Fold:
Amino acid sequence: MTVSESSTTSADRAGLDPAALQRLNACIEKDVQSGRYLGASLLVARGGMVGHRATIGQVAPGRAAAEDDVYLLMSLSKAFTAALVLRAIDHGRLTLDTRVCEILPAFAAGGKQRVNVRHLLTHTAGTYAGFPPPPPLTMLDDIGDLAANVTVISALPAANAPGERVVYNPFASYAVLGQILVEIDPEARSFQTIARQDLFEPLGMVDTSYGLGVDAPRRVPVSVPTTNGAVVPGALMEILNQVFTEKSEHPAGGAFGTVDDVYRFAEVMRLRGNNGQYHLMSSSLFDYACRNHTGERSNGFWDFDRQARDVPDFPAKFSLLGGYVRGEGHHLTPLGQTASAGAFGAVGGGSTLWMVDPDRDLTFVFLSAGFLEGLDHFARLQQLSDLALAATII
Structure:
């Protein structure tokens, strides 16, 4: 077991309890030793001061986790796309009520003419709900071709009337949002360029990009570990390690980044869109976006897994920030059951999380090597978030 961590002095200075942080580390170490995942990078901060960071285990057999590892962020990528959409709203290029077909006329097909930007952000649009691209496109050849994907998505019928159901959308809705950003961009830039110039570079996210070279030396492979630390061969995991090349544009799940870069993004969110050096979005729009926009409705995406694992129904609580808010009540939440009602963050399938609790001024980032399937990932994040929250010293 390889563990690298920060000093007690840093924790004390940031208002964090070193003993509680050791318990957070120990929980992850136990998971790694039991074979749930190979390793992880994590970071805990208060008030903009990093009080704890650790790298635990491995990111691949024989390769110890390191602070500068670059992870596929999975659906945590949606938070970046959402931030760019909100920035475009602040700049007057569209509104939350702008209908998609006003910008992408072909999208009106199949009963989708009333779908608007807010529906896409909150997983209530009824768009194609699959993980791979819809036929005739293929995962291996077409997942990174944004325009081609949106063309096929636009021709498909709606699964339900917009706003009628909440069903997490792994791919299509945020692909459409990415293409909207391209269509309304006054400089006619690509999605990758918009993200780099309007988000990553201004925030100092120097190791973050949509797409990355397959042979990039710090890239962490996506894998499913076994109890003996070996990696399970699997078609989907192998495809994820091949398809997101440096040319890939996948707004919903194709961003790569380090734990420090994700922290930089989470920090501008903690500061309501403005870190004092870059004004990403207005505080008024951030405050509106950082609410529960799906009420107490459950997320139909998880019905199959919830029933199989005998997990009680729980509310979706989607924000407009590409992720979740904690809200009230006792229910499964990746942000931690002990988080304040206003806590918010984003999750990447099977592997990643950032969360901010504004009441405690706490930021927590967790990136793991080894894909943990379904709601097991949510339950794991809930426990880890609660352990991070337990480290706060009032």
